[in-house]
Amino acid sequence: MPGKGPREGSEAVTLGLDIGTTSTIGVLAATDGRILATATRPATLRSPRPGWAEADPLEWWRNVQALVPELFAAAGIGASAIAGIGVAGMLPAVVLLDGAGRVLRPSIQQSDGRTGAEVEAMRRELDEAAFTARTGNGINQQLVGTKLRWLERHEPEVMARAATVMGAYDFINLRLTGERTVERNWALEAGFVDLATGEAAADLLAFAHLDPARLPRVAPGEAVIGAVTAEAAALTGLAAGTPVVAGAADHIASAFVAGIVRPGDVLLKFGGAGDIMLAADAPRPDPRLFLDYHIVPGRFMPNGCMAASGSLLNWLVREFAGGRDHAALDTLAASVPPGADGLVLLPYVLGEKTPIHDPAARGTLVGLGLHHRIDHLWRAALEAVVMGFRHHIEVAREIGHPVERLVASDGGSRSALWMQIAADALQLPVTTLDGHPGSCLGAAWVAAMGTGAADDWSAIARFTRPAATFEPDPANAPACDHLYGLYRETYDRLKPLYPKFAAP
After folding, report:
1. Which of 67, 94, 163, 492 sits a CA distance of 20 to 30 A from 88?
2. Interval 146-187: pLDDT, tens
3. How many domains does the chain have?
């Protein structure tokens, strides 16, 4: 990626925001590679019914209003120093607004699993192979159309009032600028974009039961979509007139910051969910994976998402650990051999997204005996997530994507035990990062490029550096292979049974 990086002789500062599942994060980043300040506020993920995942968009906006002044105070700069703003967010959350821009109901999140009936109906109506080849994504619960159809059936009064359908970061952009847009990766994963044209297609919107008037214009991430309004400036402390770009999907922004730019580069995100991101020079649509545009124009990023990763561990700590934290449980589990002495855990506590796309799947513990202790259970949970990553890598290689370099990020990458398990199970070195504040930094760099404060996508590399590399132990490969076989076979055998566990 040729280029000069930041404009010679000057360092611009951009603001990056990340509207995440459990937190809202902000960063002020200088184009010379310095992080000037970071700040975070918790966000509430609600599950009022089994398999549901919802959030309050107004809470995200309140978080932004609180974060911005805190960032300025921590960095010791004023609003006039900000060259541009970029917002990243989870994908594809669904936010419904009325004609006055008011939020009609809680956002339906990307991990929501209520739409099994709608998925099956859409599969009956359309050739899924043709749909996947055209849109890059299969017919599954990730599609926005499944949520819209569910709302038509269950909340028709809400749908009747809906004038705008958009995503999480698009909603914050609207509050900042007053402009209705959706970033193109939201539209792509929603199932609205024809890969051949790069534009939303009328028949795809019709398939989703979406009136084209309800969909805002689609914009690439680096496009300047508007400027901070006087009203937003008064609420946030930003300067009116500051340019705002369309932004980025959070998982794509995070992978970009981690240096996932060349085919063969793979990011494993050990966050609340488990994401796996691959850089690619061409799309290879497959219904088992999602497809997004890369941050860098002209490239693509096939990816997968396991609904539960760190959230599974947090649940175990809360309910079963007796006051011990993640680090203490790692210490206990370090002496447990690969395979957890015959204990196999399937991590489908929220159903599962890729690569099985099964909202009926359930968390499952197999092989439990009285000889097992909490350290076995903890090891089994760590292995469960890694086995899910291995499943994705197997799919990626099967459809022609190379897998050569593994980088790990997010909170789980701080666990040396978890990283060694990953290296052993995947039989590749796993490198962790120092200086990776997350998706908000990717959003800040998109703003820098979009506003002309920087002119080299590759200059993002100056913010991060390797922290540690975990080499695979060949001696553990047979046990990991055996465990992976059990992991896959357990799901295959139980798949027909899982729907019977649904509440009557």
Report:
1. 163
2. 999 999 999 999 999 999 999 999 999 999 999 999 999 999
3. 2
